[in-house]
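Worked problem 6 (solution included).
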Amino acid sequence: MKWHMAVAVILTLCLCLFCSYPAVNSQAQAQGKAAPAAQKITVLNPLGAPPPIKLKQMAPRLGALEGKTIYVVDQGYLGTDNLLKEMIVWLEREFPKTNFVFKRLGMSMGGETPPLFAEIKEKGDAVIMGLGH
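Solution. The predicted structure is:
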């Protein structure tokens, strides 16, 4: 007997919910009113717009390496100095008339230009930069 009562209550609630929903919409449409519109929200993209890319020309290649001064610069990443020093040994063997200068730039986090760049512009003809990774 108890389960009859529970089933009857559940059926009554379902019937009321099922029947009342279309009645609300049809009643609003019959009166010429639009159904309540869903609330619209505006979403902003947190990434923003990237700045336009400005293309730059590559530096002109050197005609030959003989008699030139090439700076080999270590940016400071771990192990890069070992690789660059081995490269200098190979380059000096392959290009004996070229002067290779090894310099360590170190990790600079500022916007200022290191004095090494001014030295390279003044005395160097080209740069090999070891950036790591």
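Discussion: Residues 2-30 form the longest helix (29 residues).
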